[in-house]
Amino acid sequence: MNDRLTHDAGAPRGCPVAHGDAHDRAGGSAHDRADGAAGRGLTRLYGPGAATDPQELYARLREEYGAVAPVLLEGDVPAWLVLGYRENRRVLDNARQFSRDARIWRDRKEGRVDDRSPLIPMLGWRPDCVSQDGEPHRRLRGAVTDNLRTVAARGIRRHVAHFAHRQIDAFAGTGSADLVGEFAEYLPMLVLTRLFGLPAAEGRNLAVSCAEVIKGGEGALAHNDLITRILADLTDRKRAEPGADFTTGLIEHEAGLDEDEILSHLRMVLITAHTTTSNLLARVLQLVLTDTSRLAGLVSGELDVSAVVEEVLWNTPPLAVLPGRFAAVDLELAGHRVMEGDLLVLGLGAGNLDPGIRPEAGVQVRGNQSHLAFSGGAHECPGQGIGQAIIGTAVDVLLHRLPGLRLAVPAGELTSTASTWETRLDRLPVEFAARTGEEGRTGEERRTAAGWPPHPSAP
Questions:
Q1: Is 454 exposed, middle or buried (0-12, 13-18, 19+ CB in 10 A)?
Q2: What number of other Cβ atoms are within 10 A of residue 404's Cβ?
Q3: pTM of the predicted structure, to 2 decimals
Q4: 406-454: per-residue pLDDT in tens?
């Protein structure tokens, strides 16, 4: 544990932080330092205490510390959580002070975060554009953006419609469904398998593994390894049999990516594109189904789904906390002394609801795209257009396939579960007018119709 950070637990709000000397910072085991930090009251962003109401947690931290707060990540690893909108913008826009290069992360360099940490899949350095600044970043990001534009131009909405219909076919005859578990949770991954040149049958395992990587915990490393193995096999196949897909495009790009760079970018795009889009799709459907005027507007064509997406991006962005930036120099941020090598994680959800820019969170934000949901600066999400195409097409197909679509439970009964990085809707039970001729199909038959492999528990 870095005592320069943990001393903040007792620092007055808005005052520079007191720091221990070099001996204090180096002394004691990592375990002892972590226990001491937790004992002095630093808030954990993980575990049961953070899983139910992250907005309340962010508000409490803002009240105690201001726009930047000291927190603990998994393993009681210290970090600064950036809560203010303007402070988030400063960090996102200033690569000279706040680097993406995790090799300068002091707790990692000094051995307090090892390769077995569940933080590594989200924060560890890799040879991809997310981990680079300057010219290396521009070279690698160019390969990603060029190929995202190429695959987006090849009829992505057609792929979305195809898989959305297959998913809906699996439950259309029943008159009820869970639009998280039976639709939003897997649809983006099915589309990505087509864009990457993967078999659709890989979709379920990859979707589950991506969710586990974002969730963190003991299984994160194993699921990250599974994703990497599948993508390594994919690159081998595409070198032998090129195709019109994102993977082949990276292999053949003029930037000359090496094997590790190709694999790292496939992993990065797959995990971030699926998890953020599936989360966003579920939240958009939640908002539509809990407001009959929005639902009626979408069905009639008077309201465009992009306006609903924009509202969700402000209020419940798919990544509530963005990993991470590393202080490249000693500096002051919102009255706190941040030291070179400190880790900062960006509170996108908290920043979007910062009372300094949104004193009344319920005020209409339509037409205002200055939210933080897609990050910002040089590392702003390059795939946001693809994500919005998936959501817009998916919602359109769903509303036209399921007449009488309505929420099956009171809106107040819908629950969410938070991890360090995101808050996901647990279920979205709905009812609708069932299609005739399919009412008697079993759950396993519905899974088969949707294109999934047999459930592990199926006979």
A1: exposed
A2: 10
A3: 0.86
A4: 999 999 999 999 999 999 999 999 999 997 654 444 444 554 455 444 4
Residue 32 pLDDT? 39
User: Which pLDDT does position 155 carry in this prediction?
Assistant: 85
State both tokens at 163.
Answer: 């898989």
CA pair distance 87, 331, nearest whole angstrom: 13
Rounded Cα–Cα distance for residues 259 and 273 (Å): 21
DSSP 344-377: EEEEHHHHHT-TTT-SSTTS--TT----STT--G
Cβ distance 356 to 301 under 8 Å?
A: no
Stretch (H or E) spanning 233: helix 220-240
Measure the CA–CA gap between 118 and 420, rounded to whole angstroms: 11
Chain mean position to CA 283: 13
Contact 186, 203 (CB under 8 A): yes
Dihedral, 60, 420, 138, 95 alpha carbons, nearest 10 = 30
Positive or negative, the Cα torsion across 229, 230, 231, 234?
Answer: positive
Q: At what angle do helices 156-169 and 187-196 cross, to 10 degrees?
A: 140
